[in-house]
Amino acid sequence: MNVRFLLIGIFLCLMGQTLQAQVPIGSGEEWGADLDSLRDAEELKEDSIIYNASYIRYTTLDRMRSGTSTVQIDTSHFGYQYYNPQHNPYNPSIHLGSYGLSTRDLLFNPPKTIGFQTGFHSMDRYVRSPDSIKYYRARSPYSELEFVTGDQVFKATVAQNINPQWSIGTDLDFALSKGFYQNQRYNDVKAAVYSWYESKNHRYNLLTNALFNTLVSTENGSVLNDTLFRTPDRQASDAELVRLNGQREERPQQTWRDFSFFLRQSYFIGRIDSLNGGMPDMEILPTQRVYHSLRLSSKKYKFYKNEDDSDGAFPFIDEQAILTNDSTRLKSIINEFGYSFALRGKADTTSRNEVKLDVGLRNEISWFDAKDNSFSFQNTTALAGVGYRFSDRVNITGDFNQIVAGRNFGDFLYEAKADILLSNTVGRVVLGAYTQNKSPEYLYEFVNYQYHKWPEADQTLDFEKTKINNLSFQYENSKLGFYGKVEYFLMNNYLYFKEVDNPEFDQTLFRKIEPAQFTGSINMLKVTVGEKLKFGNFHFDNFAVYQKSDYMNLLQTPELYTWHSFYYNNTLVKVVDFNIGFDVRFNTPFSTPSYAINIGQFYNDNADIEFSTYPIVDVWLTATLKRTNFFLRYDYLNQGLFSDGYYTVRRYPMPDSHLRFGVAWKFYD
Questions:
Q1: Dihedrals φ, ψ of 238, to 5°?
Q2: How many CB atoms are located within 10 Å of the residue 299 CB?
Q3: How far apart (Å, rounded) are the C-alpha atoms in residues 247 and 219?
Q4: 3-class secondary-structure state, position 337
């Protein structure tokens, strides 16, 4: 009987999709008519409508740059266990030993940014940006709840269409992690309110959101025992002494506040083409488009402590201070105007043969404020993009960003890519290149904090712009589950932080850092390989990165990183789809950085220590039951086998083995 009802439900869903697919754009029938039918059915308390994930779709800013399109929400449990941004297997990190604490990429990934940057990035992985917002098109009310134990991560999403053209939604995220050692507490509150309006004739779109990030990360100054993993019968991690011991409101802490408002309007001019007309995945393709976006943002980075530095967590200063209250603030107003033109034949809406041109102008007005240093500035950036698409086989794009006036005049980022599908069997080739000219981030030029000050009174810092040239070759074959990419980087005027030279081992110079620039050329070869194998219900996913440079110790990145995931997939009692398996990750030893607390920066120290490295094993289970996803993971299963622990940052031990459980519910009505 249950099987019969299930088949009937599937049949009705398929019929609903089929009927909807018969409504072309411009016919006068809209998907909103289905929404009205659903509401009428609900009011009449009819049970003929079966709500499922196909009723919930969303778009993003990136998807709206070329037209209007949506994708269905993801209901799978694949990858759910990697909830922690520090645990992304394809972009691994080094950090201070717990969820939310200061983090840096393990691999060489130079950011492709230009213009004014404050220089604070240690908690970037946890900050939500306006560009990451999902704008939902929900034919029935949609909500999602998620909770993860241990790190106490809670997420909630609520979205609904007010009418067929207008949707609103809100996200609310919390985290409260206590860490493994004393004073590793991290907590955040991230809230977003957003809305999407599309006119009935599909020509006008408005996206808007307000986003509030507050991140608080406690600093413990590292553990006092630098050899705790060689200590027999060592005490529990949370009993280890640390260098900074303030409690409650007096905890030494980094506080980031990132508040923003975003509004984008676009209007389609001339002929409008469409793909999959009348279907949920309908895509609107304009021939001409104009847009305007407005961004208002306020970012504040603050470090606070109120205790004596008796255990040497900070550099020596002449007048030792109990209270430290350093902060940096940046406020910005950014306006962007743009025009796009696409040339395609009237008969080519299905193959998408087109030539495209984008032009735009971005103006930024900002106000910077820090101790004894306040100023305002402007930057004006010219934007351009060209593209040629031939069916789904060839897609050639070029993007050009050049600051033509303002404080960071001369910065640019030019990028080109050619995506060529050889065949579904042979695979796809992607050729890429970019060149970048970037001004020094401001933290390299000036800082006047309690424990770090530069330039000195008799010093002039006149750093050159950093130049990066990149060439890449990428090959993908989805049938074989293979991915490979070779990248070559040529970098000039590399900027970094380092401990001041101290050949006499003067203790007053320990942990004192300064900005530095390597004026020579740095060559980097980066080879990335991924392979997904399947043997019946068994899966074996592999990912490896090989990096080779003539200055590996300067870049402080490993030569080899590998990640392997072996798991079994099946369905339990015909309703619970699950994966159960284990991951193994490993990287070769590399020159490990130290961490400067006051300014939240990783730096090259004079010790130049390479810690021994061993494979790290995590076991996990993920599953889906109807609308609910679960995961259970136990990290660092092999603790005590090769070593009692390990480091990725000097003096900051990584987490002990621990258990995490997470659950996420999705509701469509």
A1: -75, -5
A2: 18
A3: 11
A4: strand
